[in-house]
């Protein structure tokens, strides 16, 4: 895969007013891109970075940075929604679909646990990461993904609240039984659908 990136605006601009109906309940439109993290920002050298598929798989799979970059990449334009109540529209990413990654192994699982540098984890049903719903992205707005936004690579699951889009992701562990991740174990909702306002346990 070429290291070149598509420039900002490759999908065109929406007309003013198109945001109506695209902001979930309780959210407000954010023009910037706030940086929110539970801890310090890791800085992983690309020479030692890798991404793994583990757990209920026939054989664990691992990619170096160069091998990951050589996988088929897609350009993705999506709205994103943070549990802190901001929404950002028409964000542009580039990355590898989770479906493409999981095609590399045979597995017997119903859930994935994304794990990241710094010890962060988040849990997702397989149905929320397959079918063009989730990617491991390494570029944002035509540039390599910066560390403060999860670079060199982060999970992108735009139909759920953004804490599910784990920053600094290093792999997926496939499991038969659901396991709460970092924020889920601290009282956040286990699923996180912004259109249902699934912010906290009990919502």
UniProtKB/TrEMBL annotation:
<feature type="domain" description="Oxidoreductase molybdopterin-binding">
    <location>
        <begin position="39"/>
        <end position="183"/>
    </location>
</feature>
<dbReference type="InterPro" id="IPR000572">
    <property type="entry name" value="OxRdtase_Mopterin-bd_dom"/>
</dbReference>
<feature type="region of interest" description="Disordered">
    <location>
        <begin position="1"/>
        <end position="28"/>
    </location>
</feature>
<dbReference type="InterPro" id="IPR036374">
    <property type="entry name" value="OxRdtase_Mopterin-bd_sf"/>
</dbReference>
<dbReference type="Pfam" id="PF00174">
    <property type="entry name" value="Oxidored_molyb"/>
</dbReference>
<protein>
    <submittedName>
        <fullName>Molybdopterin-binding protein</fullName>
    </submittedName>
</protein>
């Amino acid at each position: 895969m070429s290291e070149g990136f598509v420039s900002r605006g490759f999908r065109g601009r929406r007309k003013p007013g198109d945001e109506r109906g695209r902001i979930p309940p309780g959210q407000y439109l954010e023009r910037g891109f706030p940086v929110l993290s539970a801890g310090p920002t890791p800085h992983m050298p690309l020479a030692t970075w890798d991404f793994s598929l583990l757990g209920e798989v026939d054989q664990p799979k691992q990619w170096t940075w160069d091998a990951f970059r050589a996988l088929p990449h897609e350009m993705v334009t999506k709205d994103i929604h943070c549990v802190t109540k901001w929404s950002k529209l028409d964000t542009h990413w580039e990355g590898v679909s989770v479906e493409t990654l999981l095609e590399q192994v045979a597995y017997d699982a119903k859930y994935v646990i994304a794990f990241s540098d710094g010890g962060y984890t988040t849990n997702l049903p397989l149905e929320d990461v397959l079918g063009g719903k989730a990617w491991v992205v390494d570029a944002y707005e035509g540039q390599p993904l910066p560390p403060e936004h999860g670079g060199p690579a982060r999970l992108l699951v735009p139909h759920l609240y953004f804490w599910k889009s784990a920053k600094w992701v290093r792999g997926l562990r496939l499991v038969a039984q659901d396991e709460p991740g970092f924020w889920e174990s601290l009282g956040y909702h286990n699923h996180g659908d912004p259109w249902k306002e699934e912010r906290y346990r009990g919502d």
